[in-house]
From TrEMBL:
Protein name: ABC transporter ATP-binding protein
Gene Ontology cellular-component terms listed: ATP-binding cassette (ABC) transporter complex
PROSITE patterns documented for this protein: ABC_TRANSPORTER_1 (PS00211), ABC_TRANSPORTER_2 (PS50893)
Source species: Paractinoplanes abujensis
InterPro entries (alphabetical): AAA+_ATPase, ABC_transporter-like_ATP-bd, ABC_transporter-like_CS, ABC_transpr_CbiO/EcfA_su, Co_trans_ATP-bd, ECF_ABC_transporter_ATP-bd, P-loop_NTPase
Length: 250
């Protein structure tokens, strides 16, 4: 069984602006894939389809055998449990009075109560190293800590696929490293949208380039990042002095 299968996905916004043109993408269980591409390529549009936030175009999406069908409310709720989306701005996900309440919010909406709810909250906070901050006001935390709590809110749902939208953006070097150390051991399938090409190489053995709504490359991350003409053609640039060929593959 595949973790994720996208076939022939098309989408245009209500004003007629096309965003996706027949996207095909398959992820195996436990795979870690970086989704790369320039601004406006359709990356966010694609990931918002994975749990039905966006819909309406041609094509199909299956998550571990469950079809993403916005007309099926019960089925869509299950898909959203299986696909956890961590937004680029953690403040889009944190709105409760305390860290623990934010992490508990999703499971509570699934009907989880009592000892199981406490177990999920404890487990998720421990996974991101934020257990000691459980009673704090989220917006009193640093940006890096808020991002870790945002990840915990998704982990508490026990998803099968973790979708990360620009997880390293606006992080200082220490927070960036700490987040990588949190993400690396997680036993889930990961799809990571990022412009941070070294981070993609560190965390994802496979990379896909999406440009103008189409998949234009799919292969080992190290191979893609050492293909200078490919990167240039799709407005992707490595940091000055960074040599992916000299970095061990993850």
């Amino acid at each position: 069984m595949t973790a994720l299968r996208v076939e022939g996905l098309h989408f245009a916004y209500p004003d007629g602006t096309p965003a996706l043109h027949g996207v095909d993408l398959t992820l195996a269980p436990g795979e870690r894939v970086a989704l790369l591409g320039p601004n406006g390529a359709g990356k966010t549009t694609l990931v918002l389809h994975l749990n039905g936030i966006l819909h309406g175009g041609a094509g199909t999406i299956d998550v571990a055998g469950a079809r993403v069908d916005p007309s099926d409310r019960a089925g869509l709720a299950e898909v959203r449990r299986r696909v956890g989306l961590v937004f680029q701005d953690p403040d889009d996900q944190l709105f409760m009075p305390t860290v623990a309440e934010d992490v508990a919010f999703g499971p509570q909406n699934l009907g989880v109560r009592g000892p199981e709810l406490k177990e999920r909250v404890d487990e998720a906070l421990a996974a991101v190293g934020m257990s000691e901050h459980r009673d704090q006001v989220p917006h009193h935390l640093s940006f890096g800590q808020r991002r870790r709590v945002a990840v915990a809110t998704v982990l508490a749902m026990r998803p099968e696929i973790l979708v990360l939208d620009e997880p390293s953006s606006n992080l200082d070097p220490a927070s960036r490293r700490e987040l990588a150390e949190i993400l690396e051991p997680l036993p889930v399938t990961v799809l990571m949208v990022t412009h941070d090409l070294p981070y993609a190489l560190q965390l994802c053995p496979r990379a896909v380039i999406l440009d103008a709504g189409r998949i234009v490359a799919d292969g080992p991350t190290a191979d893609i990042l050492t293909d200078e003409p490919l990167l240039h053609a799709h407005r992707l640039e490595l940091p000055f002095g960074f040599n992916p060929a000299a970095v061990a593959r993850p």
